[in-house]
């Protein structure tokens, strides 16, 4: 990702089946059901986190004078992002 991309250029696609699978793994009772609306809502939250992480990582790269986002930029923003969440 180029650090000069704007937030509006960043998009994330999250497979709802993956979200549902991850959520199901957290339940102690396998009979617990997850509604489609719940899966979509969690998917939206995950998408927002991905976009926010990408935007913050781009800003980190720009502050470092780079035009390419590296993994270290993502690693720098994750703790604060999780606290903000």
From TrEMBL:
Main location class: nucleus
GO BP terms in the entry: DNA repair; kinetochore assembly; replication fork processing; resolution of meiotic recombination intermediates
Subcellular location per the Swiss-Prot or TrEMBL entry: Nucleus
Domain of life: Eukaryota
Any GO CC annotation of this UniProt entry: FANCM-MHF complex
GO molecular function: DNA binding; protein heterodimerization activity
Pfam families cross-referenced by the UniProt entry: CENP-X
CDD domains for the chain: HFD_CENP-X
Coiled coil spans: none
Keyword Mitochondrion included in the entry's annotation: no
Record's keyword terms, sorted: DNA damage, DNA repair, DNA-binding, Nucleus
InterPro entries reported for this sequence: CENP-X, Histone-fold
Family: Belongs to the CENP-X/MHF2 family.
Subunit structure: Heterodimer with CENPX, sometimes called MHF; this interaction stabilizes both partners. MHF heterodimers can assemble to form tetrameric structures. MHF also coassemble with CENPT-CENPW heterodimers at centromeres to form the tetrameric CENP-T-W-S-X complex. Forms a discrete complex with FANCM and CENPX, called FANCM-MHF; this interaction, probably mediated by direct binding between CENPS and FANCM, leads to synergistic activation of double-stranded DNA binding and strongly stimulates FANCM-mediated DNA remodeling.
Protein name: Centromere protein X
Taxonomic source organism: Frankliniella occidentalis (Western flower thrips)
